[in-house]
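Objective 1.3, modelling of assemblies. Example input:
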Amino acid sequence: MSTTFQNIRGTFDILPDAYTDDGGTRIASSAEWRHVEATVRDVLCRYNFEEIRTPALEPTELVARGVGESTDIVQKEMFAFERSGTQYVLRPEITAPVVRSFLQHHLDQRGGVQKLFYLGPCFRAEKPQKGRYRQFHQFGIEIMGADKPRADAETIAVLMAVCDALGLTDLKLRLNTLGTPERRAEYVEALQDYLAPHADELSETSQRRLERNPLRILDTKVEHEQEILRDAPKLMDFVGEESLAHYDEVKEHLDGLRIEYEEDPQLVRGLDYYTETTFELESPGLGAQSALAGGGRYDRLAEVLGSDEPFPAVGFAAGMERLFLALDAADVDRPGTPTPDVFIAALGEEAERWVFRTTQSLRDAGLHVAHDLMGRSLKAQMKEANRQNAPYAMIIGSNELEAEAATVKEMESGEQQEVDFDELAEYLARRVDGTEAG
RNA sequence: GUGGGUGUAGCUCAGUUGGUUAGAGCGCCAGGUUGUGGUCCUGGAGGUCGCGGGUUCAAAUCCCGCCACUCACCCCA
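Predicted structure (tokens):
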């Protein structure tokens, strides 16, 4: 259409106003993003989590090891490149980076359990579609150093609390346990043995997974594969007693908090690092991308990343874009762009200079002030004040300069009055406070 | 990687069996008001009709190719 540049495919601009992209998806305004981010931070802080910020760029090896060589993410979705002999990757998720940072900075030495949260962009080179982008935004938590089932339950509880604070209801929580890696390995072997005779009945991808990542076959949506799986060995039968006890206690805590969930033995998360408890939060009716968040326990990740000692850990990651989809579907009210308290219109060069200085001092006094920078007509400036939804407009011309009193107009009623220059800040502050009470 | 859909103004879209100068609404700018917004009236700016080729006296419209965007499968947040 035009010859100017366009944003990279699979990314999107967040503008002052919400808009609809070419696929009909509503892209929320920057004010809505700020509101959601603020709500997320607020709830997480109330649950006593502390923020951690790590770079978008990480060593490729960290992601390969942390997320797992067999995963789709590492196999085909990394934005990775080499520069001067160093292998870089734009992080596809933030758990491995957080654990890296935790180990690098010996955060365990701060004492006790570390409850961390993050919020930021991630990158995956997938084919974009509704609710799925190449640059997307995740927030999440990691509880480092706690192996008690209460940590699992708190992870889920804080996730639900964030959704609740945002106004999301009708969510579905699915829960499962994967047991220990050792027992899981036994199970994988049994599953392979069971499936091997059926290999030629399986789809191409499932055949490939049979070798590399057999657990993922459990997710299949192919009907005859599901039939084959019906008589397959069950993961639950391989999960050890300790794991089952842990799982039971997690459920007990959730019951105690009145958090509803649905057990789903088929729930196998796509990332290699999960052990024991796993869960996924869904917003039904969102279509293809209904998963808002996923998480679970990953007690072995620290060691996979080179730690000499184990750090039991549990956390979740949630997708901001998915959250917005759910908010749209639920028609939840969100704030609009902040509007100026007052628009100051100037008539003539002398007034412009006075307005420019006064704007500054009113802003110093804490007011949100707008003014004209184009030298436009009074009519145009009033129109601008109206467009910006300023509750008050102030008019400064030669009359006002001479009288040393401003004409202040209340936009809604259209009423005007004169206010002495030295009382302006106080007058406006008082009026604005009154209107903002609601 | 595999399928489907869509490309006309800033936005939403119309454009007849191909027909000469490509339109509407909204938005934007200006005037009606030599110092006053929202409503109303008038005017204006803004388009390589995604790109390239072909058919034709004539293409936004028909044909071919390409590109972009998008939805879905897979998988994930």
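The longest helix of chain A spans residues 149-166.
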